[in-house]
Amino acid sequence: MILSDLLGNAVLTADGERLGVVVDARFALDGPPDGLLAAARLYGLVVSPHSHSSFAGYERTGVDAPALVARFLGWRARGSVLVLWSDLASIADGTVRLRPGATLYSPRFQEAGE
């Protein structure tokens, strides 16, 4: 699967409730070394109920400059969630379905050490 195949897909809960669309992905660099860096693995997907495009990283950090851009992108990111890859049940026909009991995190979510 190519990442661009996931971007823009609708995301549904296990009950069929629409959460939004996939706007970004999070990767962790914790695999075995692959050249100079550790291999990347897909950690989770950022889902937005309002936007259909990436937030350029403004949703995950305390970046606040330039102020007008940060304010606008912060507003667009409202209601966005991070869904861990392990919480996905299926990906088919332009729809990502979550498993029952899936946890929704803030897009600022970071594991210890990340």
Please tell me about this protein's structure.
It is a single chain. The chain has helices spanning 3-6, 67-76; strands at residues 10-12, 18-34, 37-48, 81-84, 88-92, 95-98, 104-105. The chain has 114 residues and is mainly beta. It has a single domain, classed as SH3 type barrels, CATH 2.30.30.240. The longest helix is centred in the middle third of the chain and has 10 residues, at 67-76. The two termini are 25 Å apart.
Q: Assess the beta-strand content as a share of residues.
A: 35-45%
Structural class: mainly beta
What does the oligomeric state look like here?
single chain
Uncertain parts: none
Overall pLDDT, averaged? Answer: 84
What's the structural domain tally? 1
Q: Helix segment count? A: 2
Question: Topology of this structure?
Answer:
Blueprint: H1 3-6, E1 10-12, E2 18-34, E3 37-48, H2 67-76, E4 81-84, E5 88-92, E6 95-98, E7 104-105
Parallel strand pairs: 1-6
Antiparallel strand pairs: 1-2, 2-3, 3-4, 4-7, 5-6
Could you name the key traits of this structure?
114 residues; mainly beta; 7-stranded mixed beta sheet; 2 helices
Short characterization:
This protein is mainly beta and 114 residues long. Helices cover 12% and strands 41% of the residues.
